[in-house]
Amino acid sequence: MSATRSPRPAHLVALLLVTALAACAPGPAPTPTPTPSASSSATASGTATSTATPPATSGPVIQIDSPMADARVTVPVTASGTANTFEAALTLQLLTEAGDTLCVRQIMATSGSGTEGTWQTDLAFVPPDSDQPTVLRAYELSAEDGSPINVVEVPVVVTPERPPIIIVTPVCGDTVAPGGQIAVTGRAQVFEAQFTLELRDAAGTAVLSQEVTAESGTEESNFSALLTMPADLPGGFYDLVGYNTSAKDGSVQYEFPVQILVQ
Q1: 126: which residues sit within 8 A by CB, 6+ positions away?
Q2: Selection from 89, 84, 68, 217 nearest residue 146 by Cα
């Protein structure tokens, strides 16, 4: 005789069914892990702050390579360096310790506006009677308000050594109108007392030339000349240069350049 199975209680069957269904049901979706931003992170106040690595710092906009700090220099003072300024323009200025300007020049580097260029210029003025501490300053003018920006300075000492030709007037930065006249005075000690005054444009091309004779050819003496600007001379910066030619080979020597503005 076969054994008869006893029926399971109803509550046990229900419990087994609920357990089976629970095992098959999907679990809760996992919470996604936030990916950290490469450019920002949140502060306690909720403000985003940059955490990205900043770009490498570029070099100085303007640099004076020569003369070196505390160098002893003679007139004309030759300066050179590099620059990466807007449209390659920059200003060179030599100042006394009291802040007085001895000479200022507007010049152009070989390139700018994103490409570093080189520059060189001469600042010519009447030499001091004794060693004079000065500051050589280079800067560009702000396109917004014309104020000096990216200023660099080098202290130098100007010696009293006198060049063979010295233009006393005009001085750096003086102005003259096209067709106007400019009185040139100064001191010179050159062979046979004769030398040349020349007006050169920004490219170095002579637009006006006049021979001058000083009072003496054996010692430093006075000279004077009156130059008339061409009536059609375009406005801009020009160099008034006094120079002599070598008796040996005819080469140009003793250049003394003073920058003036024609306007």
Answers
A1: 75, 166, 168
A2: 89
d(CA 41, CA 49): 6
Residue 153 has which token pair? 């300075």
Question: Which 8-state DSSP code applies to residue 164?
Answer: S
**Domain segments of the chain: what residues?**
62-158, 165-262
For 84-235, list the strands marked E by DSSP. 89-96, 101-108, 117-123, 132-141, 148-158, 165-169, 175-176, 181-188, 194-200, 206-213, 221-228
Which of 2.40.50.140, 3.40.50.970, 2.60.40.10, 3.90.1150.10 is the CATH number of 62-158?
Answer: 2.60.40.10
Residue type, 115: T
Decide: residue 159, CB within 10 A, 0-12 exposed, 13-18 middle, 19+ buried. Answer: middle
Q: What percent of the chain has pLDDT over 70?
A: 78
Residue 205 DSSP SS3: coil
Residue type, 225: A
Reported pTM: 0.77
The pLDDT tens digits for 213-241 are 999 999 999 999 999 999 999 999 999 99
If one compares 140 and 35, the residue with the highest pLDDT of the two is 140
Q: Do domains 62-158 and 165-262 have the same CATH topology?
A: yes
Q: What is the CATH number of domain 165-262?
A: 2.60.40.650
Enumerate residues 6+ apart whose C-beta is below 8 A from 7. Answer: none
How many residues belong to the chain? 263
CA 32 to chain centre: 53
How many angstroms separate the Cα of 26 from the Cα of each of 19, 177, 197, 234?
14, 93, 99, 88
